[in-house]
Write a structure and sequence with these properties.
heterodimer; A: about 120 residues; alpha/beta; Transcription Regulator spoIIAA; 5-stranded mixed sheet; globular; B: about 130 residues; alpha+beta; Heat Shock Protein 90; about 40% helix
């Protein structure tokens, strides 16, 4: 079953369902890459809060998605990794080094917001 | 009677999901809770994926383990695939012949309490793992 992708402004949101198959994850990668180009998105939020397992395949695929979207000009943040899942990932030896993560959707959105433009110093 | 054992034929990626869900259900029945359920489901996911990637087909059987009055879950993954020529190497972190992270077997061993692997080249591989209730 394809993973639904929602659009909000220039951000795409992919909410993973309880038990995506390997094929679903691979398709998400293609779908996101295509939509970033078509919709000119600048950020991607991947919500994994419904997942009860993040094994090595899921982690590797999400990492690949984050790197590929970056090359397409969009930042990706992975949100909602559950405490038990995080613990199992550490035991397994998995990490998401270099990939942005956030507690939940709200924090993910906050992370993607462009930083306020610093006030230019004025000479007087 | 409650199902105290399950067998899942592993042929494609969807079966990996089924195996880990059945494993989680049985573990819950045995009395595992919280993070242990996730550790068990994740370990099953890793060894089930190894079957799909390396052997194409195999099966995972799940049952209740008992030893010295302790209860736990027994997971046996069996395939008739090509076998593993160098088990010691396959158990090392980061070693993979299948374009993966190479964490499947060593990772599953870290998630479970007992882990045993037997493999004969040309005949297949059997992984036996257990986790005991604390």
């Amino acid at each position: 079953m394809a993973i639904p992708i929602l659009k909000q402004g220039d951000i795409l949101i992919a909410s993973l369902q309880a038990a995506p198959t390997d094929q679903d994850l691979v398709q998400l990668k293609d779908d996101l890459a295509e939509r970033i180009g078509r919709l000119r998105s600048r950020g991607v939020v991947i919500d994994v809060s419904a997942l009860d397992v993040m094994d090595s395949f899921a982690t590797r695929t999400l990492r690949g998605i984050a790197h590929a979207t970056k090359l397409r000009g969009a930042n990706t943040v992975i949100v909602g990794i559950q405490p038990d899942v995080a613990f199992a990932m550490v035991r397994l030896g998995l990490s998401l080094d270099g990939i942005a993560t956030a507690l939940d959707l709200e924090e993910g959105f906050a992370w993607l917001q462009p930083p306020p433009i610093a006030e230019a110093p004025r000479g007087s | 009677m409650e199902a105290d054992a399950a067998r899942v034929v592993i042929r494609r990626d969807g079966d990996i999901v089924e195996a880990r869900q059945k494993g989680r259900e049985l573990a819950q029945q045995i009395g595992f809770a919280g993070s242990d359920l996730t550790l068990i489901a994740t370990a099953i996911s890793e060894i089930a994926r190894n079957i799909v990637v390396y052997a194409n087909q195999g099966e995972i059987s799940l049952s209740i383990a008992e030893k010295n009055g302790r209860r736990g879950i027994l997971v046996v993954a069996q395939d008739a695939g090509p076998g593993i020529p160098d088990i010691e190497r396959a158990m090392r972190d980061g070693y993979s012949t299948g374009n993966s992270l190479g964490l499947g077997l060593p990772g599953a061993r870290r998630l479970m309490d007992d882990f045993e692997i037997r493999s004969t080249v040309g005949q297949g591989t059997t992984v036996t793992m257990r986790k005991w209730r604390t």
